[in-house]
Structure formats: C-alpha cells, structure tokens
Amino acid sequence: MARVLTIGLAAACALSLGGCQFIRDDINRTFGGSSQDEVRQADLAASQTTTIGVNAYLWRAALDTLSFAPLAQSDSSGGVIVTEWYANPENPSERVKVTAAILDADLRADALRVTAAREVMQNGQWVAAPVAAATVQRLEEIILTRARDIRRATIVSG
Question: Which candidate, 7, 41, 69, 121, has a CA 20 to 30 Å from the CA of 28?
C-alpha cells in the first residue's frame, strides 16, 4: 500500500511539475525549441551589444551627438571619443572640446561619462573657462536618450 501511495504521489508531483516553466524550458531545449526565457534573454542581450568592445548603442549615440565637432580620437574597443576644439561660428571667441567615455557593455546611465573643456579668447589667447555642470549633464542625457531610441528602433525592426 505504501508503495502504491508513493508511486501515486510521485505521479501527481510529476504532473504538477509539468506545468512549471523550468520543465517546459528543459523539454524545449531537448527538442530544439526556444523558451520564453531565451526570448527574454535575446531582448536583454540587445541592450548589451558589444561587438566593438563597448555598448554599441551608446557608442553610436555618442558619435551621433558629438558629430558637430571633428573627432580627434575614437577608440571603440576602449570606448573613448575625443573631439577637436570646436568654435561655434556664431560665437568664435569661445571653443569647447568634449570627451565621451563608455565604461560598460550595458546600456545604463552610469556606463557613460562625458567631460568637456571650454576656452574663451582673451587678448588674442585662449584661456581656460569653467564649463557649467548642466552642460555636461545635458550632453549625457542626449546621448543616453539617443542610445535608447536606437535600441528601440533595432528591436522593433529586428
């Protein structure tokens, strides 16, 4: 009787576990199907696109955002973009140089660091001037927003 009860309990457990996601995923993998977790991981992996060494969305967004100035240096494996000095034609007595560093493979706000240097013309010489913190923060926001837009467009079209 105990043996029949044990077999019955094991069969009931097996049937109830049949509805578990883990079992379904295991069965799908065994027979070549894909699980919902794998689909979710594919979406997550899209935010970690790193074929160039850093997050590709952040890299592309930083290049797009800083395209107003000529590039002095760009290193996709290290994630660094440095512009040349740029003077706005409407204000030639002021120039800026921007550096964007992508620090991680994930598309996250703390994976991006932007710094800027500013100089103003005084008595025929360029003199260092402070950069408003809001300017650097705004550049970071623009790059992050652009990276998210690129990612969304990739997911929708892919």
Answer: 7
SS3 87: strand
User: Could you give the CA distance from residue 60 to residue 53 in angstroms, rounded to a whole number?
Assistant: 13
CA dist list (Å): 2 to 5, 72, 139, 144: 5, 80, 72, 64
User: pLDDT (tens digit, 9 = 90+) per residue, 9-46?
Assistant: 555 555 454 455 555 565 555 555 554 554 444 444 45
pLDDT tens by residue, 80-115: 999 999 999 999 999 999 999 999 899 999 999 999
80/131 same-domain check = yes
Task: Specify the pTM.
Answer: 0.67
Distance between CA atoms of residues 95 and 117, nearest Å: 8
Instruction: Give how many domains the chain has, as a whole number.
Output: 2
Q: Where in the sequence is the domain holding 126, given as residue range(s)?
A: 56-157
